[in-house]
């Protein structure tokens, strides 16, 4: 039977004008559709998004997924596809993958990621393989890969990092002393020139007196 423009009684064993399908044919799923204050039954080959097919001896029904942010599910507590922007992991939906798991962006799934150990202590501050002779250097720490990812497309986190450090020993033992600053050299040179000029002036005055 058909009531109005839509065949709401398609696939029904029993149907009413106000409530639509009441009982479905074999293998079809009964779905109670709600539109505002009105609701009516439909008989479908597969359940819509957010529902899964529950088969019972009495009648097959579309039951709502109870998992948050799930688009389609296999059972009440196992999601097979999450809504856009969420990752699927063991039948649940997450904004980001749990610790120890990495995201496959194309499939929007969480898979076992790369596991790394704890960071080591910071190494000796050095520069150009020397631990002295400079004011600043670099120190490095590392960590080991404990478990490689199941898929090569998943990168491991960094296993080495460095930072700037101040050397404990500025001057190397037995090393050459640094040249004085240029400003000191200029002052010393100027002082020597003044002393030489004064000396020459004194000699000139003494010679001049003798000639007189």
UniProtKB/TrEMBL annotation:
Biased composition (Basic residues): 172-191
SUPFAM superfamilies: Growth factor receptor domain, TSP-1 type 1 repeat
Top-level taxonomic group: Eukaryota
Entry's Gene Ontology molecular function annotations: heparin binding
Residue span, R-spondin Fu-CRD domain: 9-110
Compartments (UniProt record): Secreted
Annotated region (Disordered), positions in chain: 172-212
Record Pfam families: Furin-like_2, TSP1_spondin
GO CC terms in record: extracellular region
Sequence ranges assigned to domain Spondin-like TSP1 in this UniProt record: 114-167
GO biological process, one term: Wnt signaling pathway
Entries under Gene3D superfamilies matching the protein: Hormone Receptor, Insulin-like Growth Factor Receptor 1, Chain A, domain 2 (2.10.220.10), Thrombospondin type-1 (TSP1) repeat (2.20.100.10)
Record's keyword terms, sorted: Developmental protein, Disulfide bond, Glycoprotein, Heparin-binding, Secreted, Sensory transduction, Signal, Wnt signaling pathway
Family, as annotated: Belongs to the R-spondin family.
Name of the featured protein: R-spondin-2
Organism of derivation: Smithornis capensis
Biological classification of the source: Eukaryota, Metazoa, Chordata, Craniata, Vertebrata
The encoding gene: Rspo2
């Amino acid at each position: 039977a058909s009531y109005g423009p839509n065949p709401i009684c398609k696939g029904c064993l029993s149907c009413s004008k106000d409530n639509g399908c009441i009982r479905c044919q074999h293998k079809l799923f009964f779905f109670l559709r709600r539109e505002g204050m009105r609701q009516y039954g439909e008989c479908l080959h597969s359940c819509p998004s957010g529902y899964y097919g529950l088969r019972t001896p009495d009648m097959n029904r579309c039951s709502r997924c109870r998992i948050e942010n799930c688009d389609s599910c296999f059972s009440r507590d196992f999601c097979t596809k999450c809504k856009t922007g969420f990752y699927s992991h063991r039948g649940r939906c997450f904004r980001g993958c749990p610790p120890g798991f990495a995201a496959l962006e194309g499939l929007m799934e969480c898979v076992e990621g790369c596991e790394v150990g704890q960071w080591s202590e910071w190494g000796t501050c050095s520069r150009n393989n020397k631990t002295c002779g400079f004011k600043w250097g670099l120190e490095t720490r590392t960590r080991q890969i404990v478990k490689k990812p199941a898929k090569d497309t998943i990168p491991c986190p960094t296993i080495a990092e460095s930072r700037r450090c101040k050397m404990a020993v500025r001057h190397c033992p037995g090393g050459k002393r640094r040249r004085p600053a240029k400003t000191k050299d200029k002052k010393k040179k100027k002082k020597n020139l003044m002393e030489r000029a004064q000396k020459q002036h004194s000699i000139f005055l003494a010679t001049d007196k003798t000639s007189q």
